């Protein structure tokens, strides 16, 4: 009996050991399989294997995250799955993966046109997630605590300091890094329509007019001789009317050496009108040249009158500024956080807009209106300070 009990005890221990060993082996195999599957499905090659990822792949391959002087490459998982928490990593993998797999099986994005249609929706969702997690994927590589901020450009230093002081995050400014940014033009399109509606209702007896686009000014009401090009938002004082024509007066400033141009304000290159050479003699000088310290140039007040068509005019410039604000949101806010007009001086804005506009689909008149909106609301016009 004693021997039987010993044998049974031995078998029980042996069986328990075998069970524990098998459980550990199965667990190890399971952990390895999970680790392998997570790694295998986190590669860029796996992510872009779906048909709907062809366009994002092409955009990524043309970005700095694909190829750069430092030879550091950031793939899909590096940017789209947070790495700072294992549970969040696995959860994001599962939820995002299932969502993308179902969308692929349903054919949600069958071609490039469908991708473009959904680009804005997808971008907003990713931006919102990154705002929520404080751009965790960006910070896994770009760590603010080890930045050599003084080795950065002055602009980068200023913006990174602003990020900290204004509680911003990486994605607030750095959009369109690996993929082309969307343009949310719906509000701007509505504002443009409203602008034209208001212009069509401008009273015939309006005492002041503001063009909503670049217009031609004439030396006579019969449009026989062109006198000037007049730009959006220029304040025009109505002197007389004849049918659908108005004689208007432009008041502004000439810069010494550039007498062909009338600027809206002293020392600020907000162009009101460009006068044709034969008409320069008709400019009425209203005072002496005065020195402008900031630009180290001399300016004098002038007046000029011309005939214009009464079409495409506003009697109140505010609607034009509302449109300019929507343009800023639509075409500038896709790539980075919307930069307020008072961030720069009036003389700085034209070069900035011209440098950025070719990255968008904004048309020439939209670019003009945007420029004038930003200039007329710049920090040296409104007096707003920006550190």
Protein traits:
387 residues; alpha+beta; 3 domains; 11-stranded antiparallel beta sheet
Task: Outline the structure in words.
The chain has 387 residues and is an alpha+beta fold. It is 45% helix and 17% strand. A hairpin with a 2-residue loop joins strand 5 and strand 6. It is elongated.
Order of helices and strands: HHHHHHHHHHEEEEEEEEEEEHHHH
- The gross shape turns out to be elongated
How many strand segments?
A: 11
Oligomer description: single chain
Tell me the radius of gyration. 32 Å
* Number of discrete domains: 3
- Please bin the fraction of helical residues: 40-55%
Structural class: alpha+beta
- The percent range for strand residues is 15-25%
Q: Count the DSSP helices.
A: 14
Largest sheet: 11 strands, antiparallel
- N→C terminal distance: 92 Å
Contiguous low-pLDDT stretches (5 residues minimum) are none
**Mean model confidence by pLDDT:** 86
In short:
It is elongated and about 120 Å long.
Helix-strand blueprint:
Elements: H1 2-40, H2 44-47, H3 54-61, H4 76-80, H5 86-106, H6 112-132, H7 136-139, H8 154-165, H9 170-173, H10 186-200, E1 208-211, E2 215-218, E3 226-230, E4 236-242, E5 245-255, E6 258-265, E7 268-275, E8 284-285, E9 290-292, E10 297-309, E11 313-314, H11 318-332, H12 349-357, H13 364-376, H14 379-382
Antiparallel strand pairs: 1-4, 1-11, 2-3, 3-7, 4-5, 5-6, 5-10, 6-7, 8-10, 9-10
Helix pairs in contact: 10-11, 11-13, 12-13
């Amino acid at each position: 009996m004693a021997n039987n009990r010993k044998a049974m005890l031995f078998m029980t221990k042996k069986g328990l050991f075998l069970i524990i060993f098998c459980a550990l082996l199965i667990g190890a195999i399971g952990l390895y399989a999970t680790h392998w599957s997570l790694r295998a499905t986190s590669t860029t090659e796996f992510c872009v294997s779906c048909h709907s990822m062809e366009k994002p792949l092409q955009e990524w391959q043309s970005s700095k995250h694909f190829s750069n002087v430092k030879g550091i490459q950031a793939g899909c998982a590096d940017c789209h799955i947070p790495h700072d928490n294992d549970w969040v990593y696995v959860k994001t993998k599962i939820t995002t993966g299932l969502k993308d797999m179902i969308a692929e099986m349903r054919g949600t994005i069958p071609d490039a046109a469908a991708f473009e249609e959904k680009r804005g929706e997808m971008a907003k969702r990713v931006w919102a997630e990154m705002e929520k997690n404080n751009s965790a994927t960006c910070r896994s590589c770009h760590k603010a605590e080890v930045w050599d901020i003084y080795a950065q450009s002055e602009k980068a230093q200023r913006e990174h300091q602003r990020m900290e002081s204004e509680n911003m995050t990486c994605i607030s400014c750095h959009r369109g890094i690996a993929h082309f940014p969307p343009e949310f033009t719906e509000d701007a399109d509505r504002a443009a329509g409203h602008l034209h509606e208001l212009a069509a209702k401008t009273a015939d007896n309006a005492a002041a007019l503001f063009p909503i686009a670049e217009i031609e000014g004439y030396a006579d009401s019969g449009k026989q001789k062109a006198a000037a090009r007049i730009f959006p938002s220029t304040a025009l004082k109505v002197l007389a009317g004849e049918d659908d024509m108005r004689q208007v007066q432009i008041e502004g400033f000439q810069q010494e050496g550039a007498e062909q141009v009338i600027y809206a304000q002293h020392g600020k290159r907000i162009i009101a009108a460009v006068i044709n050479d034969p008409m320069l003699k008709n400019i009425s000088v209203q005072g002496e040249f005065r020195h402008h310290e900031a630009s180290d140039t001399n300016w004098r007040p002038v007046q000029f009158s011309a005939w214009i068509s009464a079409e495409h005019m506003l009697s109140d410039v505010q609607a034009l500024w509302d449109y300019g604000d929507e343009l800023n949101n639509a075409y500038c806010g896709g790539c980075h956080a919307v930069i307020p007009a008072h961030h720069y001086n009036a003389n700085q804005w034209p070069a900035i807009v011209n440098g950025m506009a070719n990255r968008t689909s904004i048309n020439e008149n939209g670019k003009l209106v945007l420029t004038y909106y930003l200039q007329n609301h710049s920090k040296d016009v409104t007096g707003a300070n920006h550190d």
